[in-house]
Amino acid sequence: MASRWGKTIPRFSVANATPGKVMEALRVQGCAIIERLIPEPRVTQISAELEPHVASRLLPADGADVMLREHADFMGNRTKRMLGVLAKSPTMSEMAAHPLVLGVADALLAPYCERIQLHIGMFRRLCPGEGMQPLHQDRHSVPAMELKPARGEPGYFPGAQWGVAALWALSDCTAQNGATRLIPGSHLRSDVNLDMTLKRTEAQEQEVGWTPSEEDCILATMPRGSVLLYPSATVHGASANQTESVRDVCLFAYSPAWVRQEENLFLTTPPKVAAKLPQVVQELLGYSLHGQVLGMVDVNGDMGDPQDLLKEFSPSTATFAKRAALPVLSRQTLSANAELLRSTCEHIGFFYLVDHGLEEKLLRAQNALRKFFLQPDEVKAKVGTSTSRVFPQHSRGWVANETLDPSRQGVLDLKESLEAWFQSGPKVGLERPEEEDPQKRPFRGPNNWPSELPELKEEFMAAVNALHELSLEVASALEVCLEVEPGTFVKKCDDPMVLCRGLHYYTPLGGDTPDEAALGCSAHTDYGLISLLHQTAKGLQVLHAEDNVWMDVDPLPGSLVVNLGDLMQRWTNGRFKSTVHRVLPPEPGQRRQCIGFFLDANFDAVIEPLPRCIPPGEASKYPAIQAGQHKLAKFKVQSGSELDDQSAEFFRRTVEAPKGASMGGA
Question: pTM here?
């Protein structure tokens, strides 16, 4: 649908939305919609976190909020509004700091500042019977925005924007339940007059300015999980809710960091709360410096950065965990979302993958593994690593416990695992027969399966085959985002080394709470190319290398956690990151079980940094290496069986490990 000016609301899918395209839409039309940018399970989680706070709030007509009652014509009599949303729903950090939205806001506001900030974060619920909100602009919140020179005077510049709004749909926004109506192109007009009570002739209109009309409006209908973006000068307003259901949205507005925020975010999200949020969100809230001095605080008797002050609210900067706002990508649009995928791999190397279609197979495999881990140790020991003739011996069967950190030899992780390797071309679930001389063909040979649970092999291998296919799709998407020849990664994975681990984490015997030194899985990086993790409970943490802080990677329903390994980091000359991570043990009475899938290259594949990843005039950071020898060297160092210089060199990561963090992993 187009307005009478011929303007429309540009719409994007996750597959074709890039900051550049969306920015251009906002520049020309003054609005854009990105549909289903946040997946359905995440929207459900956010709504569940907010609902207890929303349910207890009264409508303006019934409450004691004088401000809302006095401005009922604008605020509405049947609209619930709520600030401090980031303190009430930690998951909303993923909306407030979504990389695509921040990229657009930063680009639009870049001419006016060196840093952007959150201006306000507000939840809004339009209840049945709410009327139409007057058309307006969002300039009113900052008085200076109204003090603009007249046309032709020095300093006048049409189209200047001082704020960007992101309106997230927590429920479907329809023509009947109150979808926002707006006027595309209105952001470019300097003569907007919003006194709509006056009727003017065309001649009077030219004198006093243009009065928006309902005839110019277009409804921004969108499904839940979508976001409507518009600059502060775009004329807009909510429509009436004519249904029997509520319409929920959340507004995050952004402004230059030197502007007085509309919401007092330091009170609604105080330091002790902000300290638990991702650093990017802390900085958006205002816990950061703008320029050299704006926003500085007193830290230990000296003028300092608010980020240093927040550290005082954490028990220990070495162990305190923030919640990681990892990007959420869809299997269906992975290659199409190349820009976000590339940025993610360059900065942290971890992301959630949804819409993967494997949940049923993975849950069946998890159930079969649960039955195995509940068996007595003497039953599990029948398929222990000591019974395997494969080399290395500890690569097959049940592992009662281990440590992935060679510096913690003698301090075992609080976990047990079932190790299964596959190396047989396109269908990795077909196992190789036993080798006559295992040491000549490492990692090849049959797995150890318990005769007491015949269904375990079938369910486990079905999951392995599906995960293998998915891992190759991820590899192909990485080729696309690096703009290298198709097959660059995949062709060297046609006879891969594939490990799939069933993992069970536990608390110490007797149910005692583990001490600070106890870990479910010690700090490490993964050895190979691509890792896929299906987790059922909290515990996974990734290390934010810059400030040496652990960040929680909580389970996202229906998702897999994807991360990159050391060999991929070498292959991309350090451009893509293999990030240190660990697992905390579960609390007493809780159970944490996971399936970890690890894709490596062919044993004989020679891996060397891609020319595209080597800056002109510079040498590569890594020499060529055979994938199999790289894997063996990592195993030897992990087990402590060979700590010679050559193995240590293989074990070294691209960047020096942060203090207190280990290197290496499966």
Answer: 0.54
